[in-house]
Amino acid sequence: MLNSSAYRAASSGVRFGPRPPTMIGGPGTCTGLGRAAALPQIFVGLKVAMPLAAIGAVIGEFQAGEGGLGYQIVQYSGVADSPTAWAAIILVGAMSIVLYFALVLVERLALPWVRATTSAR
User: Model pTM?
Assistant: First the structure.
């Protein structure tokens, strides 16, 4: 059981202590430095999500599409036209690769300091 003076001291420290460093600008404030520091991790997430989104769209077209590459893959594999189905699969892969490297190019142009600081590692 806590002593009442110890409880008051602990609770007053929680309520009236100094603000944590993330709250210095006030709640809801985001400084330019914080956004710039977060950009490399945002691009990491985008680079993971970009190819998966393209593949997810094709898989969605497998189920309910009436056009697109996923629909073409299902239609041509159903009529035993394997070369055309494989061409659509390769096109999906090439599209994912092109989108990924386009995002890498945007990252290099938008964040030139990241390459300079991580190339030595």
Answer: 0.63
